[in-house]
Amino acid sequence: MFTLPTIALAILFASIIGLAFYLLFGRGWLQLGVFWLVAVFGFFVGQIISTLMQFSLFPIGSVNLPEGAATCLIALFALRAFWRVETPS
């Protein structure tokens, strides 16, 4: 189902999305690592769901970019909603 180039390209796209999300909303090294892990996990969930449903909007090879990016962003925003960092007053 997933070949090595597909996995590498999916991790690359997820890493770009996770880094952009960190640059917009993140603080600290811990959040960078967690955002990256959640981005990769979310992207692969989108890949698996779109593969099982046999739906792909604009595939790049075997990578379903819009579906993977959408689930990646959903996962990141869900994480952000649950992980609020208190700012010092």
How is this structure best summarized?
The protein has about 90 residues and is mainly alpha-helical.
**Helix proportion of residues, in percent?**
over 70%
Rg, Cα atoms, Å: 14 Å
Envelope shape: elongated
Count of extended strands: 2
Kindly name the structural category.
Answer: mainly alpha
Overall residue-averaged pLDDT value: 88
- Low-pLDDT sequence parts: none
Sheet with most strands: strand arrangement: 1-2
Helices, by number, come to: 3
How widely separated are the two ends? Answer: 51 Å
Order of helices and strands: HHEEH
Beta-strand percent range: under 5%
Largest sheet: 2 strands, antiparallel
Account of the protein in words:
The structure is a single chain. The protein has 89 residues and is mostly helical. It has a domain of 55 residues. 73% of the residues lie in helices and 4% in strands. The protein contains 3 helices and 2 strands; from the N terminus they run ααββα. A two-stranded antiparallel sheet has the order 1-2. Helix 1 packs across helix 2, helix 1 packs parallel to helix 3 and helix 2 packs across helix 3. The longest helix is centred in the middle third of the chain and has 25 residues. The termini are far apart. The relative contact order is 0.19.
